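Sample entry (165 residues):
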Amino acid sequence: MKINKLVIALFATSITFSACGESPNKSSESESEAKETMTHAHEKSQDTKELTIPEGARVFFANIQSGDVVNSPVSIQFGIDGMEVEPAGELNQGKGHHHLIINGGAVPAGTVVPADSVNIHYGQGQTETEIELAPGQYLLTMQFADGYHQSYGEQMSETIEIVVE
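Predicted structure, serialized as tokens:
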């Protein structure tokens, strides 16, 4: 019974990834890389130990702030204090990688961050990006997650509101 559930879960995950299409951001993790690391996360989830967040650790947008009016493509620099950025794939204390969530909030701690057009993974350890956004008002949430894409939760996220002209 457990094997059937695992097969169904992996099949559903593969359908989700194949439906996502190409990432809107050339510096984000490629679809195949995201699929590979997400599959690795599912396989390793039984062995996952809870990683702690060092006191005072935080993420922040280093070059834009809430209320900014910007042009597209939007340049974003991911800032972090108290932890280190590394590529996805390994589970290491005090380390992880960034995700950008467009028009959404923090992902609960321990939850795998989705990978789609509005939940963009930077699993190669990127610390900056440019994204194309149509004119309008946006909430941008930076979410830090462990090597298996499991969110560190609200403490390791920041949400800002920007306007794209």
